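Hey all, sorry for the wall of text incoming. These are the six entities for the joint prediction.
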Amino acid sequence: MTRIEEALAKATVLVESLPYIRTWAGKTVVIKMGGETLEDDDLLGALATDVALMKFVGINPVVVHGGGPQISDAMGKLGKKAVFVGGQRVTDHETMEIVKMVLLGQINKRIVTTLNAQGVLAAGISGEDGNLITARKALGSVGEDLGFVGEVEKIEPAIVNGLISSDFVPVVAPVATGPDGSYNINADVAAGAIAGALAAQKIVFLTNVPGLYRDLGDEGSLISETTADQLAKLLADGVLSEGMIPKIASAVSAIKDGVPQAHILDGRVKHALLLEVFTDEGIGTMVTA
Amino acid sequence: MTRIEEALAKATVLVESLPYIRTWAGKTVVIKMGGETLEDDDLLGALATDVALMKFVGINPVVVHGGGPQISDAMGKLGKKAVFVGGQRVTDHETMEIVKMVLLGQINKRIVTTLNAQGVLAAGISGEDGNLITARKALGSVGEDLGFVGEVEKIEPAIVNGLISSDFVPVVAPVATGPDGSYNINADVAAGAIAGALAAQKIVFLTNVPGLYRDLGDEGSLISETTADQLAKLLADGVLSEGMIPKIASAVSAIKDGVPQAHILDGRVKHALLLEVFTDEGIGTMVTA
Amino acid sequence: MTRIEEALAKATVLVESLPYIRTWAGKTVVIKMGGETLEDDDLLGALATDVALMKFVGINPVVVHGGGPQISDAMGKLGKKAVFVGGQRVTDHETMEIVKMVLLGQINKRIVTTLNAQGVLAAGISGEDGNLITARKALGSVGEDLGFVGEVEKIEPAIVNGLISSDFVPVVAPVATGPDGSYNINADVAAGAIAGALAAQKIVFLTNVPGLYRDLGDEGSLISETTADQLAKLLADGVLSEGMIPKIASAVSAIKDGVPQAHILDGRVKHALLLEVFTDEGIGTMVTA
Amino acid sequence: MTRIEEALAKATVLVESLPYIRTWAGKTVVIKMGGETLEDDDLLGALATDVALMKFVGINPVVVHGGGPQISDAMGKLGKKAVFVGGQRVTDHETMEIVKMVLLGQINKRIVTTLNAQGVLAAGISGEDGNLITARKALGSVGEDLGFVGEVEKIEPAIVNGLISSDFVPVVAPVATGPDGSYNINADVAAGAIAGALAAQKIVFLTNVPGLYRDLGDEGSLISETTADQLAKLLADGVLSEGMIPKIASAVSAIKDGVPQAHILDGRVKHALLLEVFTDEGIGTMVTA
Amino acid sequence: MTRIEEALAKATVLVESLPYIRTWAGKTVVIKMGGETLEDDDLLGALATDVALMKFVGINPVVVHGGGPQISDAMGKLGKKAVFVGGQRVTDHETMEIVKMVLLGQINKRIVTTLNAQGVLAAGISGEDGNLITARKALGSVGEDLGFVGEVEKIEPAIVNGLISSDFVPVVAPVATGPDGSYNINADVAAGAIAGALAAQKIVFLTNVPGLYRDLGDEGSLISETTADQLAKLLADGVLSEGMIPKIASAVSAIKDGVPQAHILDGRVKHALLLEVFTDEGIGTMVTA
Amino acid sequence: MTRIEEALAKATVLVESLPYIRTWAGKTVVIKMGGETLEDDDLLGALATDVALMKFVGINPVVVHGGGPQISDAMGKLGKKAVFVGGQRVTDHETMEIVKMVLLGQINKRIVTTLNAQGVLAAGISGEDGNLITARKALGSVGEDLGFVGEVEKIEPAIVNGLISSDFVPVVAPVATGPDGSYNINADVAAGAIAGALAAQKIVFLTNVPGLYRDLGDEGSLISETTADQLAKLLADGVLSEGMIPKIASAVSAIKDGVPQAHILDGRVKHALLLEVFTDEGIGTMVTA
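and here's what came out:
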């Protein structure tokens, strides 16, 4: 391209972003970052840029993060075996301590400092801060005791709203106040519940697959757009992969709570979030009411 | 480019805009649109997009427009000959009436409706509204009576600030309240004075040349960066073209009034404003203190 | 009168104004100024004083003006014949350009500068600014194409409210954003629609007759008080003069929209507005729900 | 006068008031009402109208009242003789109780209810409320013990400002918090000190003479305008009547504290306050810096 | 106690107050002080401390006071006999003047200065200030003319709310604006009506008995908790003492108006108010809905 | 004690607290909790009550905590030896990870949940959130490399102020953003720097000794009051114990930064904080300017 063509190409991209900026200004978007997304410094840096850009054009991003691989890793180092029942980590007291140390002491602050480096001010909190997430004890699918594993009982969004109105990007670790101490909450589920309580306009799940497939083995079967009702049917039919279930359930539930859009994106693609929010690029799977 | 490459290219442009958005958020930028810029619907549409994008990412654009060619045109239709002395239109009472009708009745509203069509709310005002511009009578360089041609005496920016804080893009026609009725003010000069009074962070002159040349005949001599002091010297040396003089004088004066940056851009290049504000593209001439 | 008697007479007038000031404080009053009112500098000056006094005692006046005679005049000068169908000006593209130039470039700014001279800050806008008035195409009574003549479709009062809360007197020219460019709106109708959208407490039509007559030929038959229902009947009966129809229709419609009072006053009487608003003088015709 | 002439005369008076309204809008005016003014229901009603009109056009009136005759009267009824030393009431404990009962229990509330009847909301307070006036013990001119007679030590204007910003007219009785209980303060002096502390723009003393005379016996020698310096000289020269001394001293002191204007008016003239504030009538004596 | 034990005891009391402070923060509590409470400087000082403490921990106390004994006393001194019909003071014009002088000139200011001495800012007002209490004429139980004795017709709480939001403790004397001048209102009734109009959370009647007794002669029959319905029954049964009737009627009426709690406390017990509001001590009689 | 005596004793304690509440309302108090204080659930619960009480009476408490013993404990469990040089923990990258996990993942949230249980809303943050604490690398006293041990370079208090104005109690872990990742900051030093940046009115160090002793071996030599200058001398003289040095240095530095008072209290005494803030009990050591 000549210099003029290049300039024009740049202008075209920026002009393309205008209607998206117009649409999303002043709205809240919840972004769930999976533990996988957090392992690559480059990816996390690109994500932080995307979140910063959202903040600067007037969107209120709220980050909720997981940390599964990092928790298992830490348990390994401490000679403790991770046990899963139906996809949920059995969480005894000691495990819960490790969960908190990894989520709050490692991952949360890593996201915060990466965002701060982009010139936005991020503030990391746990679901216990300001009673953001209250949990009740969850049981396994056949009634197993999973320990300190919780279901969301109530969201008190005041602390998140306070941080937003003080112009911070809240970064939330999915630890909740439970009946007898801290509880571990699935990060997808926490993100969906927070999106509902904040009356967010969008929730984005960044994961390690390109989106939802009609037929898991067939790359061409990626579903680019679907509805909460169709997803509820897939959930009921039991045809989803174990990792996809909480995302889909959380997307369905957030839409039921009034969040107009949910997205499942490949967090391993650099700037996937940016492209989804600001361009015509149709990537991943979009869910609407 | 493959689809992935295209997506990445888009992302790159958006990421490149981040530091510019960060820098300019909340700041006021005055944009002088010359009469030439306003004759082509496509160009005006592109300009409106640029201004809208600025507004949406948190910048406060203020448009000041001229209308020289359109005024001469209307005078011709009315069988009245345009007379210029030292680059300034001799403005008798009848001419002043035509000036107001063209600037306020045609051009101002054309810019307003084009901006409104981009989803921002624009509001057209004259320098007489809210006593925005008060003028004293100007004389020609050798003391000729130019009629209702004025020099800026005082700027009362309350109406512009009021519109900004009600979230409108002010569009200002350079007509002033003078000692004995309405006065005609050079639009470049009005833009500079308004930029100073608003404590704007930048003033952009959109004109019909690529920028300021060291040697007018030599395209390669475009000055991409200079200072107010160097320009003041050029003005004193009398080496500038007649059309460039008020722009340069106004740029120098705005910088003296505390506006940190002035730009002279080619308004005939689509999205020149956008590229200047949001990308690394070095176009036109930048003036700093 | 002796000096003491004079002083007492003055005091009496001021004291008489107190209950009116008390009643109208903080309320919005829309004032329609007809083109006729605007031709005499003295009258316009007196009107400006009245509007300024309203503003200073805490009323929010909003001026809407016409300009019929001035438009016809300008068309004559340009060798263009004014054509009316059923009292409405057939408005081709060229005529619309003249309408805008006269309304915005002449009349609007004349009112603004006359008000500014009284020490209030006035701001002139068109119905296109901030999308204040959106129009659809109007047809003549038997379906004739009237060109760019519009009916009010929607009022977006944000810009007027913004100016009021920044302490300006808005002065509105009845030009609207239509489906294919600017549209000409009857000023009486525009004033009524704006009064309704602003939830004004009163609309005053300043015209060139002393009020509404029961019997047009009989000066003694002036109706000093009537209701919207009675007026609606007069409209249906087809007994009103052509010039009175839009005023009466607009008064009826504003009252239907919740404006409690409409007045038809003789704008040729100096300070008619002042006397109506602040004294016990019963002048013109008052319409209530 | 014909009806038209009458209407015009009314309009003229209102128009004459415009520049005064413009000048005084938003400003604070302290009005000292002498005990004499308060004895005639008609006069008090007219005064209340004047104060109400001031409030409605955006002025902030603050009333400070005396009550000398009424206190002496009450003492008489209780068989207690009023004793004066150098114009100051010797105030033993019992007298102080009577002072409070008369000022707060009679006069203050009479002014409040008269103002309320005009449609403004008045609120009566004592100088002890919110520690508005703190007094130290005053001595007579040759050191006599005057009992609970005080000099102003400090004004805490918060309560008056709070009432003003809640849109009430404060009505202040000149009782102060002293070192050992309530103290009696000269109302002229209290008014002047409050005007200074409020940064009032004007203080008006309503009294029972037409103003200050150069030569007390000669009606033609009324001083219509003078300065604080000239008054200070008169005070020093000891040529003022006993009743005028505290007014003049207080006017001088308020002007020293930055109040631009003081007026001495004849409170027995109906609407004297109104005429002074809103018309060209030159009445009483005006003092400036 | 050892020094450590003492410290611990202190800490325990403070800790005990925490839940009460938490519950009452930001809420309005109306306190009726009977004339008896006001006769002992020590008691009044302790009460002022209690009110100040309430204010400082974020409660908005509003004091309403009576003055029966003091009024009768003043009447006696003036040689005027107090006449009561059915517990209500027959109030001729002269008596009404004495009522105002005593309530406003003595008692109200005494409470204000005692509160000011505790470091809160109190402001004394009458029910006539800002039209706080409007009364209609009351008749005796068998239709006797009681003179200027009123029933509450309307409460305009703006002045009280204004004082609260300016951080003052309002102290209200039960004098009302009536149809033909000032009216005397029972202080218990005034307090109840004000509590209802302010949407207070609690009203406390400080009186000269320990509370309400089931059997007046039996100290052991103190009712520590009851409901408005039960009290309404007692009222209907006519078994209450004359002094208790207005308190009970007012408590019942305030609760009907939405005030959740009423208390009847012995004002002669030092710090009874403090103990009721901030500790577990069950004193007096509590009434709930 | 009889019931009456008990009640009176309670009242006395509450009344004693009034002047303290009055003095401290609206002021910020920074509380440094040492790691030792945090090991006993009962003590922590009592501390949380004290902090809650402060919050409820209008004080803004800000908690800064350490965690030395807990970090050493965790390191032990992970088979890593804690190394100290001159009282400072040598912090390699792995240690820093443990520091963050313990401080943020364990201790910070434990304080937050204990406070939340008292009915205040607490929010736990790290010094990296919102760039609260920026650190530069610290060296040992003889230039040893201590790894990720930092000195405070800059405090950005926006996040703490934002939480305070949203009515949360901020709980800060002393981790900072350093030149190459997270840095470990001495909690005493962090607390002092934050107190200075917040313009706090008081800083309280809760520690495991009764205060500062003139002669460490002599219990009777407790210094109950001293000045920053005297402490600076003690620091220079090198006579302080290693654990006391950072407290004293931090107290001196906070006072230099304008904090009027610093306290060193025995955190092992239940409700020591409460007694210090709200009673006349003189406990611990108070430092003033």
